Structure formats: structure tokens, C-alpha cells
Amino acid sequence: MKRIRPHIVIFLILGVATAAKIVWAANSGGTVDTVLFFNFARALHTDSLHNLYLHSSRFNHTPLTALLVSAVYALSADSILRFAFILRCVSIFADVVLVVALVRWRDRLGAPPWWALGLFAASPVSLMISGFHGNIDPIMTLLLFFAACACVFRRPLWCGLFFALASNIKVVPLILTPIFFFFWLGRRQTAKFTIAAALLLFAGSALPLWQCPLLYLRNVYGYNSSWGVWGLTYWLHQTGWSTLQTIGFEHLTFLQLLIAQILKVFVLVGISTLAWKRRHCQPKEILETLAWSWLFLFAFLPGLGPQYAVWLAPFVLLLSARWYAFLTVAASIFLFAFYQSTSTSGFPWFFALPLEAHTPIWSAWGNVFWVALIIVLALQTPAVWNRAASQREAIIPHLIFPIPDQMRGG
């Protein structure tokens, strides 16, 4: 009997998972995020980007995201359910591309193992976030993965472009800037990466920086996520101290803002230190650096949106298949508790609207995921931090997509 090729199994799993996501997206409204994006997009069709930053502190998104949701709105014919479906289809497509890219990676480098790749293709975390939640985080994750792949096959220009695109979808990848900068510094190719990234980043932010720079920087770069629902800020909130009781990202006290900034600086210092130490690592080992950085970021993140769980998935997968499986189970438990407690109906959920009354329920379950992250971080830090970085680099062939000769500018 002829053995079924692993590729076929992975793509069958991917096909079933993708179909499930599409069916769920077509028969649900998602979360409050889809409503917010719909309202933002509708406002952009009658008003300016400047006024949206001015009148809505909840609009903490980049101009490229505004352009994306505006395009989705144009296709939706002012139907919020159609809008929610199309928006999630974009993320579902990003998931498909990412799995295909990881299969190509597996073919060339032999990792991750097929069982882990099958789990990634069928991930409950991805199913709940792309198929139900309704946000753009999977797109950012895909672009950041491509930026890392560009490092592996030594393309600083492409790395800069993909990194800037990811940061123009959501600004959080900017925290990882030291990893890419020092990686190319160690190879004396910083200029191509920096120029490409800087130009595209500036192009993506040029309009609001010209029209309303302070509003733009406050809304987008000053966003602290939701205080008091995750990790350290959750436990600080549990102390009952009056100045630490505000939940969310609006109207925070001075002390809450100060703690959030201290945590951000601490994360940036830790990531920058590791990036400098590993600047001469083998190109494929940049995925390990990124995985550790995501783990470190999540451990000390002031706040959390459940959709953030997709950020670290492909990087942890390539760091350790077993730990990826462990974190997937923990994240799935947390996400299920979140959507179950905030949904207007039972599973399969139609619409989830987190209210302050729900916060003690789902934020407590977040400790399952947070503690799991702490465990993985504690056990992986010695290996990632102390692994000797070889000065001799292997030549890695093009892994994900071929680059024509006429486009080899990087």
C-alpha cells in the first residue's frame, strides 16, 4: 500500500480548517472589533482620517489598516455582516499562505515536524481568531514571518519592505526593530534594510504625520492595550489599590500609565540586549530570537487582546514544536473562556461583546495562557540566550518565494 505523502495530509487538514473558518465567518458576526472596524470604515467614507483620529480615541490604527477596512467596506455594500465576513476572509487567506510558507520551510530545513505542522494548520487558536473574532493580526503575523524569511536567505531590502508592511498594519512589530537592525548590522548590510523600512514606514504614516502628528502619535503609538486584564497588571488590579482599578486603555491613572511605560521600556531593553548578543547568529536562528522576544513581550505586556495569540505562533513553532503544542492548548483554553463568557449565545458563538461585568471571568482564565508563557520563557531563555552564535553562515536557498534576477536589488 502506497504511503500518503505528508504534504497531502497537511493540505487536507488545511482545507478542512479553512472551510470551517469560512463557514463560521459566514454565519456569525464576530466580536466588537468587527463593529468598530465597520464604524471606522463607514466614517472614512464620509469624513477624513484626520477627523477620525480627532474624534475617536478608539481609532488606534494605522493609515494602511484604515485603507484596508475602507476597501472591505466598499465591497460590503454597507452590510455589517457582509463586512465582518469579508474582513475575516482576509485573515483566513493570510493563514493559508502562512501554512504553505511553513510547508516550504519544512521541505528545505526539515523543521518543524509534520505532526506540529498539522497542528498549526488545524490550530483552534487560529480557528477562533480568524474564523470568528475578526481582526487583522494574522496579516501582520504573515508579513513579519516573511521579513524573517528574507533574513534567512540574505535579502535586506525585502526584509525591510516586509517589516515595514507588517508595522504599517500594526505598530507592535516596531518593538522588534533591534532584532532586524542588529542582524543586518552584523552582516554590514544595515543600510539597505534601514532605508527600505524607513521609507515605507514613512510613506504609510505620511498623511497623518502631516495633518495631525500629535493625534496620530497619541492614538497609535501611545496605545497601551487593556490594563488590568492580563499578566502583571491583572495581579496589580487584584490588590484592590484604588489607583490601579481602572480597566481598559482609556482614563488610566498616572500610576497605571507609568507602570505601563516602565514595562514597555523593560521589554525593549531585554529584546535589544538579546538582539545585540545574537547579531552574528546563523540566519535561520533569527526565528529563535523572534520567538523568545514574543515570549518576553507577552510575559510583561501591560494588556492583552485575545487576538494577539496569533503573533507568536509560527515563531514558537520553529523554536520548539513541543512548546508550541503546549502553548496552543493553553491559549485555546483562554480563548474559549473569553468568547464563551462574552458571547451573546452559546457555542458556536454568533457575536461576542466583552463588557466590564465579563472581565473577572475571562481575565482570570488568561492566567492559564500567561503562566504557560512564563514556563516556556523560563525554560527556553538559557538555551536561546547562551547559544553561541557562529560567525560562519550557511548559504540558505530561497525558501518561501523565488525572487526573479531583475528584482534582486537587496
- Bulk shape: globular
Annotation, overall tally of beta strands = 2
Mean pLDDT: 88
Q: How many helical stretches? A: 18
- Biggest β-sheet strands, sense, barrel: 2 strands, parallel
Rg (CA only): 21 Å
- Sketch the topology as an H/E string, one letter per element: HEHHHHHHHHHHHHHHHHEH
Distance between the termini: 47 Å
- Sheet/helix structural class: mainly alpha
Stretches where pLDDT falls below 50 for ≥5 residues?
388-410
Helix content: 55-70%
Record the strand order, biggest sheet.
1-2
Question: What proportion strand?
Answer: under 5%
Give a verbal description of the structure.
- There is one protein chain.
- This protein starts with 5 loop residues before the first helix and ends in a 24-residue tail after the last helix.
- Strands 1-2 form a two-stranded parallel ribbon.
- The chain is mainly α and 410 residues long.
- Helix 9 (156-169) packs parallel to helix 11 (190-211).
- The chain has helices at 6-26, 32-44, 49-55, 63-76, 80-109, 114-121, 124-133, 137-152, 156-169, 177-185, 190-211, 213-221, 231-238, 254-277, 286-300, 313-319, 321-342, 359-386; strands at 30-31, 351-352.
- Residues 388-410 have low confidence and may be disordered.
List the helices and strands and how they pair.
Blueprint: H1 6-26, E1 30-31, H2 32-44, H3 49-55, H4 63-76, H5 80-109, H6 114-121, H7 124-133, H8 137-152, H9 156-169, H10 177-185, H11 190-211, H12 213-221, H13 231-238, H14 254-277, H15 286-300, H16 313-319, H17 321-342, E2 351-352, H18 359-386
Parallel strand pairs: 1-2
Helix pairs in contact: 1-5, 1-6, 1-7, 2-4, 4-5, 5-6, 5-7, 5-8, 8-9, 9-11, 10-11, 10-14, 11-12, 14-15, 15-16, 15-18, 16-17, 17-18
